[in-house]
Amino acid sequence: MGNFQGKRGLILGVANERSIAWGIAQELHARGAELAFTYVNEAIEKRLRPLAAELGVTRMYPCDVQKDSDLDALKVSISQEWDGIDFVVHAIAYAEKEDMTCKIRDIRRSGFQLALDVSAYSLIGVCGRFAELLAARKGAVLSLTYLGAERVVPHYNVMGIAKAALEASVRYLAYDMGEQGVRVNAISAGPIKTLAASGIPHFKDMLNAFAEKAPLRRTVTQEDVAKAAAFFLSDDSLGVTGEISYVDAGFNIVGF
Questions:
Q1: Catalytic residue (choose from 39, 146, 175, 246)
Q2: Residue 107 contacts residue 94 (beta carbons within 8 Å)
């Protein structure tokens, strides 16, 4: 299942070995995919290069998704290498720590705009640039979200609002790009110890509560999400688009 021999794709958002995007990259590589990575700055590039080397990835491109010029340059670079792509993994989100710890009513306009720009609009910006390359191979786009988009999760704050915008964007992009045969989906993953999660106050308490209350009585792993990602990016899911699918040990079904 999920054979990626002869398939190639772009992954945005690998920050280090704990990134969900890194788990997805490992899974897709193991199934035969040819990959390209992006990095936002020199610090991330320094962490990413040895990881890329592990998978034999040589295509690495700078890209700050807040800059249209970077997105345009990324499109040009990929177009020069490939005449089409099979998948794009969008694993990018950011909010200032102070905007995740303050009261929602006290969030600064600039902090709100930053979270929405990086975490939600970036998906639209990426899809706009790569629509034709994806259409050429009837490709798929996958983003990552979290339950805080639908329910109030203490300390998630502005990121929950940004993820709600991301999920709506997934549905509208799925409709918009469907006529070209391009599928757009998202995985709502349970909490995992990542670089991004380290900025969420009381994250350890969240993990403990999650494992106690989730039907499977455990947290989820990079591998759990990566295997689900492979399904949504493969030909096994050709009839699936616009979906927000939970990989959270069943936590989302439980009420208290």
A1: 146
A2: no
CA–chain centroid gap for 62, Å, is 17
pLDDT tens per residue across span 162-214:
999 999 999 999 999 999 999 999 999 998 876 566 556 566 777 778 889 99
Using CA atoms, how far residue 243 sits from 32, 156, 223, in Å, is 25, 22, 20
CA distance 37 to 39: 7
Length in residues, the chain? 256
Q: Which of 156, 172, 175, 246 is catalytic?
A: 156
Strands 8-12 and 87-90: parallel
Q: Is residue 33 part of a domain?
A: yes
Tell me if residue 179 falls in helix, strand or coil. coil
Paired tokens of 78: 């990929």
Question: What tokens were used for 230?
Answer: 């492979």
Q: Which amino acid is at 176?
A: D
Range of the domain at 100: 8-247
Q: Read off the CATH number of the domain in which 240 is found.
A: 3.40.50.720
* Structural domains of the chain, count: 1
**H or E element, residue 144:** strand 140-145
175 as an active site residue: the answer is no
For 119-145, the pLDDT digits (tens) are: 999 999 999 999 999 999 999 999 999
Q: Which residue has the tokens 């006290």?
A: 106
| Domain assignment present for 255 | no
CA pair distance 151, 59, nearest whole angstrom: 38
User: CA Rg, the chain, in Å?
Assistant: 17
156 is catalytic: yes
